[in-house]
Amino acid sequence: MAAYNKLEGELVTLKRIQRAGWPDILERFQAPELYDMAGLKKAPEQAPLFEDLDEDELLVFDIVPHEGGTSVGYAVLVHYDGPPYVFTYFFSGQLDVDFASDAILQMVLAFFQYTQEPRLYTFLPKPVPDDIHDRLLEGGFDHQEDYPVIDNDEETCYCLERFTYEAYYQDEADDEVEELEF
Fold first, then answer.
1. Residue 3 has what pLDDT?
2. Sheet holding 12-16, edge to edge
3. What are phi and psi of 41, to 5 degrees?
4. Residue 142: phi, psi to the nearest 5?
5. What are the φ/ψ torsions at residue 85 (nearest 5 degrees)?
6. Strand 58-65 and strand 12-16: pairing?
């Protein structure tokens, strides 16, 4: 997964945080909401967190809007806590649905391009607002009402299968290549 360090979306650029920025990640990961979203039971210590980052089991990207130029949050891929999953975390505490959607899309595209994993998940606290639920479904994620490893009273699961990714996104990439060949 180290193959990508910068992902360009329509609204945001995701910039993978390099080793020099890891102390900032450690500081931010002291927030209970963030370390909980990353599947940790308590705030991480430096050595295990840096090991997860170094081994690409935890990938953290700054979400940088095209207009503004400074990071507004993180897009995160967790690959150590059960099945791989993605989430966004905004420093303001307020979810920007458009930025989050664009960030997740870039993570999805990179994930399936650079791994052979059969599926990618995201977990959200209940109740999920209709606009977020609809965007996930439109993006190819399937809602899974009862997922066995989470507290289904507190959160819900969405899963994007590789075959769905290929149907939704691979054909578009192929069409662009065919257009360029003319």
1. 55
2. 6-8, 12-16, 58-65, 73-78, 85-90, 119-125, 155-161, 142-144
3. -85, -20
4. -100, 135
5. -145, 160
6. antiparallel
pLDDT digits (tens, 9 = 90+) for 90-126: 999 999 999 999 999 999 999 999 899 999 999 999 9
How, if at all, do strands 119-125 and 142-144 pair? unpaired
The one-letter code for the residue type at 165 is Y
DSSP state of 82: S
Name the pTM for this structure. Answer: 0.89
Check whether 178 has a pLDDT greater than 50.
Answer: no
